[in-house]
Design brief:
Radius of gyration: 16 Å
Strand content: 25-35%
Helix content: under 10%
Structural class: mainly beta
Largest sheet: 9 strands, mixed
Distance between the termini: 25 Å
Number of strands: 9
Number of helices: 3
Oligomer: single chain
Order of helices and strands: HHEEHEEEEEEE
């Protein structure tokens, strides 16, 4: 019987292997119909060190409707930078106050045998109290899923892989 699992890795070679999807989601290749926002942040390991070789993949619920000319509507894949930084321009959810994630995120990073799933909400969404997803998360941990407004149409959201600041990650059954 094989001891290789579906999550077996042979890398980290993801920056090269997934370059096609990164190139397809570069800001210059995107045309977003309607208002958009920029979500930026840093991904950290358990020691608080920025992870410079992660991949952040996002599925944007409102993307298909707002990105009809996009090669892969509603999808982003970005590598973290030298200081763990990442950013994605995404359509502003319509309506912007509905209590739903602005994007669902999958994190691939060194040390992870299995990728992690999370979601990002906008802190100024007035529908957060009615969010089906957020209401499943203990109240003390919900802030880890909120992107904080940092400027006009800009939000900041960090990903923490461990520690008391750890981002909330979900299991899917």
């Amino acid at each position: 019987m094989s001891k290789i699992t579906t999550s077996q890795t042979i890398g980290p070679f993801s920056h090269e292997a997934w370059k096609w999807a990164t190139d397809a989601t570069l800001p210059g290749s995107l045309k977003i119909d309607g208002p958009s926002i920029l979500v930026s942040g840093v991904i950290y390991d358990g020691d608080g060190t920025p992870i410079n070789d992660a991949q952040i993949e996002a599925w944007i619920p409102d993307g298909a409707a707002a990105e009809s000319e996009h090669a892969i509507p509603g999808f982003r894949r970005v590598p973290s930078g030298a200081d763990g930084e990442f950013s994605m321009r995404v359509p502003l959810p319509q309506p912007a106050t509905r209590g739903e994630p602005v994007m669902y995120v999958t994190v691939f990073a060194r040390g992870l045998v299995k990728h992690q799933f999370t979601a990002v909400f906008l802190e100024d969404d007035t529908g957060l109290a009615q969010s089906t997803i957020l209401n499943q998360v203990p109240e003390a941990r919900r802030a880890a899923l909120l992107a904080r407004k940092s400027g006009d149409a800009q939000y900041h959201w960090d990903i923490w892989m461990q520690t008391e600041k750890e981002t909330v990650f979900f299991d899917y059954a």
